[in-house]
Amino acid sequence: MDADDKKRLAAEASAWLVRLQDGERTLQTDAAFRAWLKTSPDAAEAFARVTDLWELLPGAAAQMSPVPAKPAKAFPVRRALFLGGAIAAAVVLGIGVSPLLRTQTLAYETGVGQRESATLPDGTAVMLNTNSRILVSYSAQRRRVTLERGEVWFDIRHDADRPFIVYASGEQVEALGTAFVVRGDPQAVAVTLARGRVRVGPADEDRAPSSKLSASVILSPGERAIVVAGERLVVDRPSLEAVMAWRRGEIIFSDTTLSEAARELNRYNTMRIVITDPKVARLRVSGVFETSNAQEFAATMAQLNGLHARRSGEVIELGR
Fold it and tell me: Any idea where the domains of the chain sit in the sequence?
């Protein structure tokens, strides 16, 4: 790549950085950004350098919001153009960044009932499900993501020199050029692979792992690894449509007990469904439902099974 191409790529990367911090950012913006990353094999590296320099500019980091669930405040046009130009100039002039300063940590999170899409600094696309939070920490050697709670879809931007690893409840998921979903809760961690390959196993030593697993497993597309209580590893092949349904605001049940279905719906709603009758809890349910409408689900279950749906405040009790 000659000098003119480097200058052009740096300017484009700077413009994209400003655009991605805009409070009016949309899914279309993220899609366009991913398309730009594919225009050149050096685009992702240029954007990473721009992001690093943004963090180093006085006052710049303090004005950018790292949490997509709370849209960043849009910069005034002149301010945005000035910052973008300053970053581009720094890149063109070849300002170096030490490995220590290149490390940064960003937080992405959603509240109950929210879904958010974001593009990480390396071009990796993520979507966070309800009540989820991740910490993203990139260095020159490794890309780390810690799933603190919830469920996240990852579509990894390949980088052979920097492994992409997700940590969740003492386990680690190493992406080998892939797209997958990780879901974590206090009892289990589930990793479902849609494309490519991932390695699932105990976290490496520097993460002070709580896992008791002695070995890891490499998944093939369509497989799911479930680590229960850090002790037992189960691999199965679920319905990918059901696993991914939350990405379009739906939830799919297939011969699921009513108690399990209610527990799953409760992840997405402040309105809680409660079942105290064991016989009612064991009823089976199949179908496609909206994640955001617990009240409609409860009414449908009551009608189909001859139950009563009694609402008291933010609680709906299903019973005889």
Answer: 1-99, 103-239, 249-319
Question: Which CATH number does the domain 249-319 belong to among 3.40.50.1100, 3.30.565.10, 3.55.50.30, 3.40.109.10?
Answer: 3.55.50.30
10 Å Cβ neighbour count for 293?
16
- CA–CA distance, 5 with 46 (Å, rounded to integer): 11
Contacts of 156 (CB under 8 A, 6+ apart): 124, 164, 175, 177, 178, 179, 196
Sign of torsion, CA 296 299 301 304? negative
Give pLDDT tens digits for 257-295: 999 999 999 999 999 999 999 999 999 999 999 999 999
Summarize pLDDT for 45-94 with one digit per residue, the tens. Answer: 777 777 655 544 444 433 433 333 343 333 333 333 334 444 444 444 44
Q: Of the CATH numbers 2.60.120.1440, 3.40.109.10, 3.40.250.10, 3.30.565.10, which one belongs to the domain with range 103-239?
A: 2.60.120.1440
DSSP the chain: --HHHHHHHHHHHHHHHHHHT-TT--HHHHHHHHHHHTT-TTHHHHHHHHHHHHHHSTTHHHHS---TTSPPPPPPHHHHHHHHHHHHHHHHHT----HHHH-EEEEEE--TT--EEEE-TTS-EEEE-TT-EEEEEE-SS-EEEEEEEEEEEEEPPP-TTS-EEEEETTEEEEESS-EEEEEE-SSEEEEEEEES-EEEEEPPGGG---------EEEPTT-EEEEETTTEEEEE---HHHHHGGGGTEEEEEEEEHHHHHHHHHTS-SSEEE---HHHHT-EEEEEEETT-HHHHHHHHHHHHT-EEEEETTEEEEE-
R_g of the chain, CA atoms, integer Å: 22
